Amino acid sequence: MPETTATPEPIQRLIEALHRLPGVGPKSAQRLAYHLVRTSPQEADALARAIVEARERIRYCSRCLNLTEADPCAVCTDPRRDQSLVCVVEQPLDVLAIERSGIYRGLYHVLHGILNPMEGIGPEHLHLSELRARVEAGGVAEVIMATNPSLEGEATVMYVQRLLSPLGVRVTRLARGLPSGADLEYADAVTLARALEGRQEI
Amino acid sequence: MPETTATPEPIQRLIEALHRLPGVGPKSAQRLAYHLVRTSPQEADALARAIVEARERIRYCSRCLNLTEADPCAVCTDPRRDQSLVCVVEQPLDVLAIERSGIYRGLYHVLHGILNPMEGIGPEHLHLSELRARVEAGGVAEVIMATNPSLEGEATVMYVQRLLSPLGVRVTRLARGLPSGADLEYADAVTLARALEGRQEI
Q1: Which burial class, exposed, middle or buried, applies to A64 when counting CB atoms under 10 A from its CB (0-12, 13-18, 19+)?
Q2: At A4, is the pLDDT very low, low, confident or very high (cuts 50, 70, 90)?
């Protein structure tokens, strides 16, 4: 059989670049590439420009290590926020999730990772020395660990607790229990066990 | 509550550009944007450049209207391909699908759309005059309609058949029947009806 319709090379390159994105499989990459080639020049250029500009203008906040355009970031410099509370998260998207809850009024500290010995990620790979320095600098009354409720998240909580306890700061973590709207009948055993352990007076 | 963590504006713009892509929801757009901001400069630049380059270098083949870098495209100029066969498809991705089947050795004609009166897409919006001109120019013995087996696809088949029949060209369409590997028990009524109507001698 003749094999002449190899996808044109510029499209092939675009498919490969899209396929490297998280959660974009080969089929999606193909669909997106053909869309980008055929859509309005405005839409395609806007995306290419948005990528370049975001890369150029976004940096890490020197205090909380969240992504920001201005350093320090808007959260760190907001006088209405409680400077004595620091919530430690794994990644910038977790900050957005906590902000959506609408009840947190303190600051953040983004680790940009989680302890994972299996993948060779040790304390030196996270921004833990910066966290320690913030607490040592004074003014922090409580560090709230908001890592994922996973083995790695737990290990990170334990590590931070040991790291900071000599400094006399209070280290807490998010409550475990039934998620809002959950069906008791379908809750997994660990979740239910944690909900029982953490039961509260009414 | 203080609302200071509005996503930095360059990231917000990137999220919006990604969200405009087909099949990319708001959550995926957010995840992709944060990935692109934090990934290696090579990866992000490669994507931005691939978009711009594909847009600059890809054009429509003046014969078959498929996407191509060289005009006419590699399929149209391949001497091993049967120039008397033209397969009509809705969009460039359909060409890839038919090429994957590995048994087609003719040429293509990409309509870039399908008749859809409900959405106001009439014959004048498709590349039908170009198809007619190709047949009128001579050398085409058969036009194979490979539009989707949908109402719109059928309407397009009928229209093309009427358009080309005065020119004495043979117009065929892809067979309908059970998809390979299908389970008869779960086949829908229409598919089964078409499979019966189209039954073949063994």
Answers
A1: buried
A2: low
